[in-house]
Amino acid sequence: MDRESLKALIVDDEAINRKMLANILDDFTNIVAKDGHQALQRAQNTDDLDIIVLDIMMPEIDGYEVCRRLKADPKTEHIPVVFVTSKGSEYDEELGFRLGASDYITKPFNSSIVRARIDNHVRLKKQCDFLEKLNVTDPLTGIANRRALEETLQREWAQANETQQPLSLLMIDIDYFKAFNDLYGHQQGDECLKRVAREIDSLLLSSRSHFSRYGGEEFCIVLPEVEKTEAQQLAAKIISAIETASLEHRGSTLNEKVSVSIGVTTKSARLERASDLIAIADKALYFSKRNGRGQSCFMD
């Protein structure tokens, strides 16, 4: 494990206990909290936490309630929680595990044993994170796959409904890709897919833009808080960037170079489901291709 990148949230209302646990995890980046409110806030505001070390007996919100809320939140539910507490009854321990804790350590404790148990939980989390990443990553291009797209689109659709912010979507298709594979072979086809993906990815400056491979030679971009005009501008930039890349394609009627067609749409009040955005963008893509390819079309 890369120790320098590990992050721990240490939660205890006693300063001496926080310091002791921080010393045990001295090669972690330690974020500390002195009560339940602060713990929940810092868990929300800290990305990529690897472990939460949590006391139980704290004022206002005890550790059990903190754990319950952490496990109910999609952002924090997968972070292992280790209780370190003086409450040592079987009932207390069982309750901790039922609430989703990964481990339960009673005080007084042996520092080396605490460290070994925390290391095991962090290692297991890293393995799970790796497998989850494989599950949502396209193995050829390294970008998100269709499963990740569907999850992201559902989440951003719900967020757009709640905040009344715009949500746009681009469907992108490599023109005459079957002809490319027939002419150059599937290995070169794979290289073409990877190159096009890199070119598009380099244009996405917002961390909230979600770029994925939809299937075959089709890609999709979900654009939260992006209006129609900005989405159309991005489509134009993508078309220009692929043209500028000058990838040879003698099977294309468009200057014998690889090109893309794009369907663009923006969420409107009449749409009922997140999947409607895909359907409309796909229809817009169809018109882009029917009208000559190498261009974009907007539909709402």
TrEMBL record:
Required co-factors: Mg(2+)
Enzyme Commission number(s) = 2.7.7.65
Cross-referenced NCBIfam families: GGDEF
Q: Which residues carry this modification: 4-aspartylphosphate?
A: 55
- Which residues are in the Response regulatory domain? 7-122
PANTHER family named in the record = DIGUANYLATE CYCLASE DGCM-RELATED, REGULATORY COMPONENTS OF SENSORY TRANSDUCTION SYSTEM
GO MF term list: diguanylate cyclase activity
Q: Which GO terms describe its biological process?
A: cell adhesion involved in single-species biofilm formation; negative regulation of bacterial-type flagellum-dependent cell motility; phosphorelay signal transduction system
One Pfam family of this chain: GGDEF
Q: What is this protein called?
A: diguanylate cyclase
- Which SMART domains has this protein been placed in? GGDEF, REC
Q: State the UniProt keywords alphabetically.
A: Phosphoprotein
Keyword Membrane in annotation: no
Quickly give the catalysed reaction: 2 GTP = 3',3'-c-di-GMP + 2 diphosphate
Has UniProt tagged this entry with the keyword Nucleotide-binding? no
